[in-house]
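Can you make up a polypeptide sequence alongside its tokenized fold?
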Amino acid sequence: MKALGQNIRTLRHQKGWSQEDVARQLDISVPAFSKIETGITDINLSRMEQIAGIFGISAVQLLTLNEDNQEKFTTELDAVNKQLLVREAEVIGLQKKVIALFEELRGTRIPA
């Protein structure tokens, strides 16, 4: 059941959801969902179909996500994370410019 839990985790990450987000949709506690994801708790067919439905796939698809799909999702996630780092650097640069302009307007800017 660990493979199923890994599939669930991969899909959750792909959606950008936290464990709490999914647990809320399943109407279970976060620790209970965490045990599903880590493979500690086996799930019945009804719960599996409910989880698959949340992700918009069938229970069969949930069970048969293979390593290629996981690798694809991981690659996509890595690409998005790199884009976020670039955007974060841009935001920091803009924040510095705003601070410098504010200081200039107040006349308190100290020359660098």
Remarks:
- The mean pLDDT is 88.
- The helical segments are 2-15, 19-26, 30-38, 45-55, 59-64, 67-106.
- The chain has six helices and no strands.
